[in-house]
Design a protein that fits this description.
The complex is a heterodimer of chains A (120) and B (107).
Chain A lengths: L2 E5 L3 E2 L5 E8 L9 E7 L6 E7 L4 E3 L7 E6 L4 E6 L8 E8 L6 E4 L3 E5 L2
Parallel strand pairs in A: 2-11
Antiparallel strand pairs in A: 1-3, 3-8, 4-5, 4-9, 5-6, 7-8, 9-10, 9-11
Chain B lengths: L3 E4 L2 E4 L5 E7 L7 E6 L6 E5 L3 E2 L7 E6 L2 E6 L9 E7 L4 E3 L3 E5 L1
Parallel strand pairs in B: 2-11
Antiparallel strand pairs in B: 1-3, 3-8, 4-5, 4-9, 5-6, 7-8, 9-10, 9-11
Classes of the chains: A mainly beta (120), B mainly beta (107).
Amino acid sequence: QITLKESGPTLMKPTQTLTLTCSFSGFSLTTSGVGVGWIRQPPGKALEWLALIYWDDDKRYNPSLKNRLTITKDTSKNQVVLTMTNADPVDTGTYYCAHRGSYYGDLDFWGQGTLVTVSS
Amino acid sequence: DIQMTQSPSSLPASVGDRVTITCRASQRISTYLNWYQQKPGKAPKLLIYAASSLQSGVPSRFSGSGSGTDFTLTISSLQLEDFATYYCQHSSSTLYTFGQGTKLEIK
């Protein structure tokens, strides 16, 4: 059974660096084809893909946020970490991590999400 | 970058209706198209992958079709639990893109 869970700060101030951790079980990020991604959703708005890391440490970023994002993995801990620099109130929202299901890029298992509020 | 445009943005419907949601890609994407359902306060749930493959455990009243630039998600007979927001999503070798969502509302 695949499960994922996000953790991180609930409240932060503008200009701070946001660090989110996705802890997962039921799969290994050393297995060929596996990937874990981050997606966020501002309150009342649509989903926005942020980044994804593959089993071979290949990384992909949303071009509009690429300069602010870093995604890493720790296979010994079964964790994926996303950092976002220079937080702004527009970064407020629910952040999800998800397991990449197949070559078609479907995200078949999701964490419950964690709400992050950026406010002075 | 490829843009994904869903229509309509909102869709009033009744239990038992057959409904169709459309997703259009700004470039041809073969069948690299997935559909999700999201209920308030919950994470999205994968319904359809590769344009037309039903995810395990998803009721057969959900179906997907299309290839190239035009795709549809059809619910053959709406149930009360189907009122939610639906998103299409494309993945390429470099990035993932979601549509803006379609909110299925009770008429």
